[in-house]
Design brief:
Elements lengths: L1 E3 L18 E2 L2 H11 L4 H4 L1 H4 L11 H6 L1 H8 L1 E3 L2 E14 L8 E15 L2 E12 L7 E11 L1
Parallel strand pairs: 1-3
Antiparallel strand pairs: 2-5, 4-7, 5-6, 6-7
C-alpha cells in the first residue's frame, strides 16, 4: 500500500496502478469459500461432475474472486497519512465476465477514479478494478469499488 499526503490525493486520480502479483486459485480455497457461504453448487465443489460441463473443471465462485480484492489492495491501494481505519463502503457496479477455473492464476489491476473528503477526516475513494485471468483475453470481473478511510 502506498502512503500519500491528503494534499496530494488528486494527483493520483486517473493513474493506472501496477498490476498485482499473480495468485493461484486452488480447489481447497474454493471448497473453503463454499463452506463459508453455504454455496456448494456442484460446479464449484464436485470435480468429477464439473468435468462434464462446458468449463471442463470446477470454477471459483464469482464472489470468491470479488472477495480477493482486499488481498490485492495491499499491493495497489493508496492510504492517506494518518489513516487509522479503512472500511469497505460498497460497489457501484460489479460484473462477473469470465469464469475462473480451478488452478487459474488471477491478479488485480486498479485505477483511482474519485476521492473526496465526505466529512472532516473521512475520505471516500472510488476505484475501477479488474481481476484478470492469466492467459485469457476477458477478465474474471470488473467493478467500481468504494472504500472509506478515517484519518486522524
Amino acid at each position: 500500500m502506498k502512503v500519500i499526503r491528503k494534499e496530494d490525493l488528486n494527483n493520483y486520480i486517473g493513474i493506472e496502478m501496477s498490476p498485482t502479483d499473480w495468485f493461484t486459485v486452488t480447489q481447497e480455497q474454493i471448497n473453503q469459500f463454499a463452506d463459508c457461504t453455504l454455496d456448494h453448487q456442484f460446479i464449484h465443489v464436485d470435480e468429477e461432475k464439473a468435468k462434464n460441463t462446458p468449463f471442463g473443471s470446477t470454477i471459483a465462485h464469482g464472489l470468491l474472486s470479488l472477495s480477493m480484492l482486499p488481498h490485492f489492495a495491499q499491493r495497489f491501494a493508496y492510504m492517506i497519512e494518518g489513516t487509522f481505519m479503512g472500511v469497505n463502503y460498497g460497489f457501484d457496479k460489479v460484473r462477473f465476465i469470465h469464469p475462473v477455473k480451478v488452478g487459474s492464476r488471477i491478479r488485480a489491476q486498479a485505477k483511482l477514479t474519485h476521492a473526496e473528503e465526505k466529512a472532516p477526516g473521512r475520505y471516500m475513494f472510488k476505484m475501477d478494478v479488474t481481476i484478470e485471468i492469466e492467459g485469457k483475453k476477458k477478465p474474471a470481473l470488473k467493478a467500481v469499488w468504494i472504500a472509506m478511510q478515517m484519518v486522524a
